[in-house]
Known about the structure:
single chain, alpha+beta, HIT family, subunit A, five-stranded antiparallel β-sheet, 30% helix, globular, binds guanosine-5'-monophosphate, binds zinc ion
Amino acid sequence: MSEDCIFCQIVAGDIPNRTVYEDDDVLAFLDANPLAPGHTLVIPKAHHETLGDLPADAGASVFETLHRLTPVIEEAVDADASNVAFNNGEAAGQEVPHVHGHVIPRFEGDGGGPIHAIAGSPPDLSDDELDDIAARIAADA
Ligand code: 5GP
Ligand code: ZN
């Protein structure tokens, strides 16, 4: 637990929340400032800041919960779809430095955008640059 982490305080039961699922490793609760009805956060109970910091077994538990809860959340609020995403690091908009996956229910005509709308200007990359990027990722994948 990280003493000054708001999500660790939620895990410890020190901050009231609307829990929708809990097991030994994972907690899922409604976002306090929902972008849509049913907006849910899924977190590992252990404090890790980003996905890269998260041990593989905790990552598997978080994804297993996202996988199982997403259709349940959609059904509960009669959503047509959902965006499931992580703000992974401060530059990507992460405000709470404890890994959390957002499940944001979506509705036909709700006026929102796709995940492609989150980045700034798309880069204009040459084939060589794309080959180089793919090779660098593949080398450590
Ligand atoms: P981030 O920008 O870090 O990906 O998202 C953090 C999310 O946590 C925000 O959507 C925010 O509304 C939510 N949040 C922050 N503090 C609390 C809290 O005390 N309780 C709950 N339920 N959600 C919170
Ligand atoms: Zn924490």
